[in-house]
Amino acid sequence: MKKIRIAIQKSGRLNEDSLKILKECGISIDNGKDQLKASSRNFPLEVFYLRNGDIPQYLKDGVIDCAIIGENLLVEKGQGIESVEKLGFSKCRVSLAVPKTTEYSGIEDLNGKKIASSYPETVRQFLEKNEIKADIHKISGSVEIAPNIGLADAIVDIVSSGSTLFKNNLKEVEVLLKSEAVLAVSPSIDEERAALLKQLQFRLQSVLTARQNKYVLMNVPEESLKEVIALLPGMRSPTVLPLAESGWHSVHTVISEKAFWEVIDQLKTAGAEGILVCPIEKMLA
Ligand SMILES: Nc1ncnc2c1ncn2[C@@H]1O[C@H](COP(=O)(O)OP(=O)(O)OP(=O)(O)O)[C@@H](O)[C@H]1O
Ligand SMILES: O=P(O)(O)OC[C@H]1O[C@H](OP(=O)(O)OP(=O)(O)O)[C@H](O)[C@@H]1O
Ligand SMILES: [Mg+2]
Question: For residues 136 and 5, what is the distance between their CA atoms, to the nearest angstrom?
Answer without folding.
Answer: 35
